[in-house]
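pipeline/complex-builder :: batch 7 item 3
reading input block
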Amino acid sequence: MVQLLEGHPWFRIREVAASERSARKAYGEAASWHLANDPPVDVRSLEVTDCAGRFESPLLFSALDASVAADIEGRLRKAGHLICTNARNHRMDPDVPLVIPEVNPEHLRSIDRQKAEYGGALVANANCAVIGLALPLAPLHRRFGIRHVVTVSLQASSGAGYPGVPSMDLIDNVIPNIPGEEAKIQTEARKILGRFEDGAFHDATFPVSASVNRVPVLDGHTLSVFVQFDSEGTPEEAIRAFEEFEAPAAVRELPSAPKRPLAVFREADRPQPRRDRDLGRGMTVSVGNVRADPRFSVKFTSLVHNTIRGAAGAAVLNAELLYREGYLG
Amino acid sequence: MVQLLEGHPWFRIREVAASERSARKAYGEAASWHLANDPPVDVRSLEVTDCAGRFESPLLFSALDASVAADIEGRLRKAGHLICTNARNHRMDPDVPLVIPEVNPEHLRSIDRQKAEYGGALVANANCAVIGLALPLAPLHRRFGIRHVVTVSLQASSGAGYPGVPSMDLIDNVIPNIPGEEAKIQTEARKILGRFEDGAFHDATFPVSASVNRVPVLDGHTLSVFVQFDSEGTPEEAIRAFEEFEAPAAVRELPSAPKRPLAVFREADRPQPRRDRDLGRGMTVSVGNVRADPRFSVKFTSLVHNTIRGAAGAAVLNAELLYREGYLG
Amino acid sequence: MVQLLEGHPWFRIREVAASERSARKAYGEAASWHLANDPPVDVRSLEVTDCAGRFESPLLFSALDASVAADIEGRLRKAGHLICTNARNHRMDPDVPLVIPEVNPEHLRSIDRQKAEYGGALVANANCAVIGLALPLAPLHRRFGIRHVVTVSLQASSGAGYPGVPSMDLIDNVIPNIPGEEAKIQTEARKILGRFEDGAFHDATFPVSASVNRVPVLDGHTLSVFVQFDSEGTPEEAIRAFEEFEAPAAVRELPSAPKRPLAVFREADRPQPRRDRDLGRGMTVSVGNVRADPRFSVKFTSLVHNTIRGAAGAAVLNAELLYREGYLG
Amino acid sequence: MVQLLEGHPWFRIREVAASERSARKAYGEAASWHLANDPPVDVRSLEVTDCAGRFESPLLFSALDASVAADIEGRLRKAGHLICTNARNHRMDPDVPLVIPEVNPEHLRSIDRQKAEYGGALVANANCAVIGLALPLAPLHRRFGIRHVVTVSLQASSGAGYPGVPSMDLIDNVIPNIPGEEAKIQTEARKILGRFEDGAFHDATFPVSASVNRVPVLDGHTLSVFVQFDSEGTPEEAIRAFEEFEAPAAVRELPSAPKRPLAVFREADRPQPRRDRDLGRGMTVSVGNVRADPRFSVKFTSLVHNTIRGAAGAAVLNAELLYREGYLG
């Protein structure tokens, strides 16, 4: 997130906070940095404060661990902040919008109720794999309606954070489970594709059947997706829906928005994580190998860069939309 | 196959044949051998003959490439041989049994018709991924009936043969397609789980929805499987069906039969290819992470050693059953 | 170690000890077990005691972490135990033998001095990479004398223990450092190839220049080795020295001793870790690609299974030699 | 090479040639393209001609396979072309300069003799691993003199071209040999670091001892390097020599020249191929873990992006220097 905000046209990092353990160190010293480039110079020297403290910035980004996010985010919301969070804790709260700007920007309208109640508000982005699912489902849902979705994910090592998965578990191997992940995929996509009406979220009603795997890939979650439509729809029509899908005008011009939210491959062997995860600077979700199935309307492969579009980039894009829509005051 | 037949109590390799290019070389010289141990001494010195020639052995094993298998196997069947084949060409022929001894040994009865028509007969084993699917489906099909199966495979590198997939395509990557593979999975499992009655095969009627991926794993195809039953059935009952599944007595005592055709893991993160592929000397299929789903009756992970149970070992086991049932003599 | 001792003809595990944290649990519950097979049944139910306590067994195996090994092993030595240790702490002590049974079994004679001084004695095995170096150097040292050794290691993930190296650090990557490892390689091989005379160890005098790397391999440390001889010696003569190398008769018949300590490959592209690490049930060190060099007498590749011959198997083999030589009383 | 020349300020691709098999196809159709981006639009539609034909461009780039490069390059040199070649065939020819612009640009003066004799001239770049060796050796050679170099390479999969190394050979494995590679490393670095005087190349006299390995890494050759200096020199002084090393002014401003030819890491665990190969858009060679050794003056790790600085980028940089120095007429 720090890297994505470097040189941002609208936002500047003024405060960084962490646990008591890192407090009072310089960020450059406290952070366990695993990216190719060094942390930005101006952030490196910022003194890390304790998350338990107070902040001046109206907009906060939360990449807190789920074990502490619920409490800290709740407290900061009451302190009047607008918080873009990547933590899972509040995603399914009945008053917290779970937003992909290209898909359900209108869910942000729910913020007013939060502000009225707490003073501040939380805006969540979805789980990394969910973003790779919900983005391509959006144009299908609009055009054909969706009755049932099955997805199996092949998730990258970086999705588990650092140090994450031991190499002894992932060399020449697959781990057919990621604790808690299936439940997120089965619920979050439905909230994103649902409606915000009469002051409440109405989740999409189609069931999502998910099965998750960890594979020896560094970045990029690959999803095999099967979709049963409500109405008729061929693979060729699905490809057209993907190709014609675009973000609302207000979203298209956000600094972190990719030119096209979806890249569509006609090749049967694409997208592939190593070759395609960086499309649109990691903000484009790729789909390909769209084809017929004996039972479903269509099946295809989807790919999302899990640490960019699936995490930090998603939070930044949400913040940009909040700023552009005037929610930051 | 040569390795699996080394020291076999019933069979001895007397003839080896290949294309014109390898003919007249010693096997040890002609074979491109990629296993840890060397070829068995007595086979190493056998002179390779041309597949176009004649053979003395009543039983033949075919590991021919699909581009030539149809013709050669057809000719050898007319020459009166009983041929256990791993090639895909004749698997779905209306008179060729596609057999997993633990699942549908009674399909061998169809051989008589072939013998009557051609003099000899072909017995096929299924595609490697199919065996990892059909074996665990068998006890579910018997106990609950099956209405719909969805499976996504994470297939190992060795499934493509040697040299197969370039390392440049598989390091830090997934390839979301294997040409021709989905069609096999969608048809072969239904033939295996179907009935042989009134001299004809009646495929199981449930549709199979498949999506396949190549992952950076050496051996062992992992499958995420979702099953809709015809009748009620819980994950716990499915586990019991897996655990109680056993081969018919005649099959259990075949030299290559594993003690149990299915190993059942209660852990959510098993089976894993590197840790579990060698169970039962590679002949046991593992299942685990059996659980509920919002829409299907049950979902689980299955694992098959693709070059042993999924290929050579399958052919040898079929041959052993043929021998035991008296078809060889 | 527990796995290697399962069914051992001479030894039986009667006591298992660990830190206070694991004490009073059953071993099967306390151990974080990462091997394919389950822990042996009789060990699984042993109650883990605290390393700070007392033991009944005359022979102890220590796989303690270096952070605590010095103290605990010292105390147990004073309590009269004979301790075969894989920890690095005491390896270079002037009174502790560092033994590879095939290479320097006579170093065990130093035990008497330890016993006299402490009541018990420590016997160390070398660092995993060192065993892959010292074993092939032994026949060269005897036949040609050694003036200088250069070695670069490509070490496997499992050498770091579990959880060890994060997969995020090892996918599509090499880490050109392992803290503390080079110093061990540069000193331990010289002690092993040195003499025990007049009650003291006299290390071999040739310098060892080492550089270490971690590579994306599960098991098996590969070493590129360059050797300058004291006298003339060709690659072909080095190969003969490797081939003719054998353990003393007393060692050859130890239960864990491989048939041959060294396997010699004539192929230029062997040994390879995945294909050759399991030779001799992981107790054989492989060498190959033995060839000339513009400056050194010879260069070659060596391979050792780091968790078997390079750790647990080494300790067990040392214990077997102690038993056979009557040191266990 | 085609990708690196896209949008080049000085050069434009006007002709593309290949074997008879590809001739008369459009480049976009004939090329087996394995990079993330598509081929540049203007090149995609160029008709591929036969290498046996004639060319209009004064400057040619050759990425020919060694099996055909000798003949074709010889013929084109006689036809008056200036040819920047990545093929190995003519590198060690007594009249062909082997150039790294930052290291030995003066070797280009040898071209005049070639032109006088043949009409045209060949300019070679070194083998990919050699460039990762010779670049960091250059400042050490100048400052301290070099008596002996030992290097062990850990080379990436892409160094073998496509399809190259089968994934079955590289998953969980190391291959301790690359045919022909050691000889190149042992000779080419000495030519590059030698002098061009009195119309002839005088190779540096220090021996290079090399051992090569293929590792499961996509891009980036890692080298462990040991150097014995002629004079005194500490690791700290070597680091300073690395840090102070810069290209001649004329080279520094070439379009493809990186800001600094060498990046120096103070960390012991860097450079690492995945993290550091792209420095300087793949044109910077990284060194790190510079330290003392029991016998050598210094040892360190070097890293080169094998397909950019080690191949195509090297040829383009050579061509830029030729153009800037007026050799293109």
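note: The mean pLDDT of chain C is 95.
queue -> next item
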